[in-house]
Amino acid sequence: MKKGLVLVVMCVAMLFAATSSVSAQTPSNEYKATLEKMLEASGSMASAKAMVPQMIAMLKQQSPSASASFWDGFQKKWESKFGSKLAELYAPIYQKYLTLDDLKKIVAFYESPVGKKLGTSTPAMMTESMQIGQQLGMEIATELQQELQAQGK
């Protein structure tokens, strides 16, 4: 049980870890809204939002006495506010590298036919890429184990 909670905390920490380096200038509401629009259009937000039910499922195991209606309401609340919260936390990072005008141009790209295709394909490509990454990780671990055994360790 504690293992699942630690995993959830680590996922959330990794997701928001980059927020520690906040720029001197606070991003405007327009910047945050444009960033959220860009994250939605790029498919990045869909990939990030897919983690909410997974995190909730792990948290359910930590508090099995909570009712199903509690968990449904909690999940709906976070699904609705996750995007704006993510954009708010990411904004200082993006602002270090991209201007508001840059974001607007990126959004314009994602509103084009090829941009829409890329945006709708991104979550599936990320899922497939993660599976390949897991396979590669397993291959590395197997090879490491074999080499350590060959050395008698």
TrEMBL record:
Q: What is this protein called?
A: DUF2059 domain-containing protein
Q: Which organism is it from?
A: Bacteroides oleiciplenus YIT 12058
Q: Which UniProt keywords apply?
A: Signal
Identify the taxonomic lineage of the organism of origin. Bacteria, Pseudomonadati, Bacteroidota, Bacteroidia, Bacteroidales
The signal peptide here is 1-24
Superkingdom of the source?
Bacteria
Residues in DUF2059 domain copies: 85-142
Q: Which Pfam families match?
A: DUF2059
